[in-house]
Amino acid sequence: MDRRSLIKTAGMAGILSLGVAPAVHAQPAIRWRLASSFPQTLEGIYGAAEVFAQKVNAMTGGKFTISVHSGGQLVPAFGVVDAVEQGTVEMAHTAGYYFFGKDECFAIGCTVPFGLNSRQMTAWMYEGNGLKLMQEFHAQYNIVSFPGGNTGAQMGGWYRKEINTVDDLKGLKMRIGGFAGRVLERMGGVPQNIPGGEVYLALDKGTLDAAEWVGPYDDEKLGFQKVAPYYYYPGWWEGGPQLEFYINDKAFASLPAEYQEIVKAAASHAHVTMQALYDARNPLALRKLVAGGAQLRGFSGEVLQEALKHSHDIHAELSDTNPGWKKIYEDYANFRKDQNLWFRFAEMSFDRFMQSQTW
Amino acid sequence: MDRRSLIKTAGMAGILSLGVAPAVHAQPAIRWRLASSFPQTLEGIYGAAEVFAQKVNAMTGGKFTISVHSGGQLVPAFGVVDAVEQGTVEMAHTAGYYFFGKDECFAIGCTVPFGLNSRQMTAWMYEGNGLKLMQEFHAQYNIVSFPGGNTGAQMGGWYRKEINTVDDLKGLKMRIGGFAGRVLERMGGVPQNIPGGEVYLALDKGTLDAAEWVGPYDDEKLGFQKVAPYYYYPGWWEGGPQLEFYINDKAFASLPAEYQEIVKAAASHAHVTMQALYDARNPLALRKLVAGGAQLRGFSGEVLQEALKHSHDIHAELSDTNPGWKKIYEDYANFRKDQNLWFRFAEMSFDRFMQSQTW
């Protein structure tokens, strides 16, 4: 019997005799493509998808590789839901609120104005009903979803002049999108949608009065403080925006059970490390911004309260027109109420005391 | 050639012919034991080790199983460092500050009085120098360590009488351990070390004036509000206590690279879900406690400031006597300073506004 036929006959038995379960291990190499909605310059956000892919690769000894593609490389940045739904790519990494126009429910998996903060959002997803409700919703789009990072509370953007009252927002041309844009509109502002690369010049010329971006770490690279020096906080429309991994349901179902679990744990790892990255890097960036001329300003209670009122109105209107929204948002809003009841005691009093120190 | 000798000859070649890399897959089943320092009744804390073990199991298709044992079952609750060091068990799940008496540096991997909050601690570990410094320190004990959950800011315990001034702490017999006990002592209090099961009776009899535990979710099960109704916040000695997985270094090194990565990702998953569990469950527990007679009280600025002063003194004294402490604590303290500079803007202003609403 020559060597080849010997192997042919004995191959499978040989594997079994060594106690190796064939189910996973005979699995051919798996190659997926991940479409990010973000440019590589948004290092923390884009990077969370890279962290995820590297973890999956390392946990499978290179047998399950996922190539990460920046926004527009394979499909348009805002076309990733369609691409995952149709199976053009196996998965995406994105911010659900980009798909607010398709169905407002997408936004709840990311954030809504005056929503949950980062820790509260994570709690809603993993230990509240969040993941269950969002997965039920996403299933309509052939999507299985998992949390994929958070930036923490963002800043409220860059302004050419100070915003002291609601009147100061009247006619304000601001680069701001989606849900937040609708709220700004009801306050008299004029939301603008212009490409990121044109914002600096528009602010400099005064064809734009304000623009929101992310927070110190990402904003510091753009130099907006030179043309719109008032840097407001908080970004009330992004108190804890969460990114998500969207996976085509058939692609996910085709994975061996072990690999499904590996995908979930890699997502958890990317989730925790992205928030850590922003938290670790924002302080130095903030110092650089202030040294470079940024003027830190807090939104007044009047402005916040008015924005909250309009946000509540919009949320209530959506509950009348979108039954899916009503179902998910009610659970989210109840959770938020409970969270803010509890967080005001131990967490808030500890943080306030620590922040009041000069060290 | 009979079937047995055919397999013997062809087994390995057969595996290779199917494209299965032998390194991991020929790995015999791995069974580890994990010694927790906690009782099963501390469901969130003990449970994080269960979550970890289940994830490892699921990601390896049951080929790497870790049995979880509660405090005292295999080794004493506070004997887990010795047990991991000597290889009696492969790993442990514990709170580093229990080993403050062995070397004060252990505490920094958990928390110190007026330390980092939960998110900040995670940022220091994953994106600052925390994990690197703690792993360097733990290596002396043959330990490889990873973050393993956080409770968030704890409550400041149960008191039979109100604590308004530092004078009210004089002679106060309080069940409180380690570092916090040393600080209380300098403020005139008398730290007590009595078994958990005897606390209720001691508070009822008045042989104990106060006791600290965790936070609403765990405290609610104990009924302390009936005998010591004043429930203070924040637990300034536990602003963001982190648990850790301690793994025997030889056991860790013996794992295939894929399994090492699986262990790390499972730890990240347990880390994020434990905090989520506490955040999700504390609100309802707090409501129950208040309905059951708990009186919520915030520590006064005077009390907190005095506790901070003594904590600073102790930290500085340790820097003189323990070079390891000096090295790790300096990095930790610088990180804390930066974190509290940044967190006061977007995060704090968002949280304060949200918490001020009645919804």
How would you summarize the topology of this molecule?
The structure is a homodimer of 359-residue chains.
Chain A: H1 3-17, H2 22-25, E1 30-36, H3 43-59, E2 64-69, H4 80-86, E3 91-94, H5 105-108, H6 118-126, H7 130-139, E4 143-150, E5 158-159, E6 173-175, H8 178-186, E7 190-192, H9 199-205, E8 210-211, H10 216-219, E9 230-233, E10 242-248, H11 249-253, H12 257-291, E11 295-298, H13 301-321, H14 323-343, H15 346-355
Parallel strand pairs in A: 1-2, 1-3, 6-7, 6-8, 9-11
Antiparallel strand pairs in A: 3-10, 4-10, 5-8, 5-9
Helix pairs in contact in A: 3-12, 7-14, 8-13, 13-14
Mean pLDDT of chain A: 93
CATH superfamily of the largest domain in chain A: Bacterial extracellular solute-binding protein, family 7
The N- to C-terminal Cα distance of chain A equals: 80 Å
Biggest β-sheet description of chain A: 6 strands, mixed
What is the CATH class of the largest domain in chain A? Alpha Beta
Number of strands of chain A: 11
Overall form of chain A: globular
- List low-confidence stretches of chain A: 1-24
Largest interface here, residues on each chain?
A: A-B, 105 and 106 residues
How large is the share of residues in beta strands of chain A? 5-15%
Oligomer: homodimer
Remind me, CATH topology of the largest domain in chain A? Answer: D-Maltodextrin-Binding Protein, domain 2
Question: Into which percent range does the helicity of residues of chain A fall?
Answer: 40-55%
Q: Strand sequence of the main sheet of chain A, in spatial order?
A: 7-6-8-5-9-11
Series of H and E elements of chain A: HHEHEHEHHHEEEHEHEHEEHHEHHH
The CATH architecture designation of the largest domain in chain A is 3-Layer(aba) Sandwich
Number of helices of chain A: 15
Structural class of chain A: alpha/beta
Number of domains of chain A: 2
Radius of gyration based on Cα positions of chain A: 23 Å
